[in-house]
Amino acid sequence: MIDTHKLKKRELYLNKLIAFRDTEPVKVVTGIRRCGKSSLLKLMAAHLKDTGVAENQIIEMNFESFAFKDMSASEFYAYVEQRILPDQRMYLFFDEVQRVPDWEDAINSFRVDFNCDIYITGSNAYLLSSEYSTYLSGRCVEIKMLPLSFSEFLYFHDFEVRDVESALGGKRKRVFDKTGEPYELREVFDAYMRYGGMPGIADVGLNQEKALMLLEGIYSTVIVRDIMERENRRGQKQITDPVLLRKIILFLADNIGSSISVSSIGNVLVNEGLLEGGRRKGTPSAHTVQAYVNALLESYFFYDIKRFDIKGKEYLRTLGKYYIVDIGLRNYLLGFRNRDSGHALENIVYFELLRRGYDVAIGKVDRAEVDFVAVKAEDKLYVQVTESMTSEDVRRRELVPLQKISDNYEKIVLSMDTGMDSSYEGIKSLNIIDWLINEN
Fold this sequence. Notes:
Layout: H1 11-19, E1 26-30, H2 37-50, E2 58-62, H3 73-83, E3 90-95, H4 103-113, E4 116-122, H5 130-135, E5 140-144, H6 150-156, E6 160-165, E7 171-176, E8 182-184, H7 185-195, H8 200-204, H9 208-234, H10 242-254, H11 262-271, H12 286-298, E9 302-309, E10 314-324, H13 327-334, H14 341-355, E11 359-365, E12 368-376, E13 379-385, H15 392-403, E14 410-415, E15 423-424, E16 427-431, H16 432-437
Parallel strand pairs: 1-4, 1-5, 2-3, 3-4, 9-11, 13-14, 14-16
Antiparallel strand pairs: 6-7, 7-8, 9-10, 11-12, 12-13, 15-16
Helix pairs in contact: 1-2, 3-4, 7-13, 11-12
């Protein structure tokens, strides 16, 4: 048993579950494998007990466990039915439920037959595909879970940020570990850029060999269980070549933040001799490559982002971009080196905007591009990301697209080195680390 007292809380997600407690929709927690979904369900169950729910009103099943291996939907229903207390509100927690064939039949029956509140997790977006959504006809709410933000990384690794006196007077931020040892904030951010935000890294410590073993385990499980096994369960045979799958993963990981088309992936792999093209065979069909890319998107390994014409106010069909869910996984795949740190920073900012509840697109304004247009409710934010704002050329390149936007929503440039000015004609220049830890 996991001791829930030792589990670190992910307040962002736990508060969402608490907000939906005892409402009709099935609560569905989705996200890449090992990003903390199982722990979140345990934290929610612990919260219920803390608020007076009896232990026997809670049923927990993890379908990764051998105890529930090869369970059918009928056996699943019978197991739960036997444990339902008459005249009591029941709380049902099902982890990796997509491993049960026709699981949605059982979930829908629980909803109809029992007085219950249902929470499920899954590591594949197929879980919430149109078939399932139709089946539950909108009676589910999705909580999208991501690996740790930088703030969560600090908390999980027992780092504390404090304001200390600066040699020039005033205050500056330093980080202290649990023994009181001080570190520069940049040093700890570099560790985040290196190891990423998978919660398991906090258990093994910031040790390269152990971190690589953990990341390799996550990678292998995603590929085998969430992609290859899923294909077998669906009775489809589109994803049949693990070598091709890995090559596409490496290509996408190496090109995060770059404009990519599906046909270009096939062409590049053939040109680099990574795929057998052959004159008669040609490159792998765009349909084949698209199937592999879709499988990676469905397993939450990569996320795609569309272009938005800011002046025309419409989404464009032109090239999109891909970002990898965890920068540590990218380093595991491509090796630890100072690889393309500008796009790596962009990757981190993209997922932070998602965590903060924004819908995110790439902005097109005339021929210029804005890295991110982030929208939620009545709020909109335009964001450029660059390593440094100290050079005149870089400043012009980053500021011109923002200056072309005529509305009054906030416009910011995030960088590791902001230069001397904190704003340019109303466009804020912010340090990326400060922005990440200042979540308000």
